[in-house]
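Take a specimen:
=====
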Amino acid sequence: MTSLTGVHQGVHQISTLDGTTAASSTADIRSSLAQSETTVNIVIETLIDGVRGFGAAAAKSDSPMQQQLMAMGAQHRKTAGDIIRIASDENMEPITLDDGGTAAGTLHRSWLSVREVIQGDAGVAAAALTGEQHARRKLEETLEAGLPQPVVKITQRALKEVDANISKLES
């Protein structure tokens, strides 16, 4: 006869994709959920940094064509709202769009202002490219760290948009 004492002690049997089972404690599950929430928030912060960065770049650009490119980059980062809704549905506590992004993003936007003064539109484009390369690395890291499946799809879409922006900025 099977004993239920393991359940009372906070141990759960979890079915894996290959049909086997694995024991996991409540503490392990909570730790995994907390790690997922942290990783989801990194994705959101990265996307918010992009919205704010491209917005600043659009405002600092003189060329109407570059202003449009930067404004489109900011618009593509609105996927942060989709991730926030999914995370909330999953009972996570995601950061909000009112968050200012990361400290590194804030510093980078300041650097963008310096580049604009010294190099004009070329400096703004170079700073935007650096920001996109950083965003690419962060999004790849979060995908490797593991995200809830609905967030994976949106993050992959955001990564494709980042790649498209990098291509445009390099040309």
The two ends are 69 Å apart (CA to CA). The helical segments are 5-8, 26-60, 64-76, 79-89, 103-119, 121-145, 149-170.
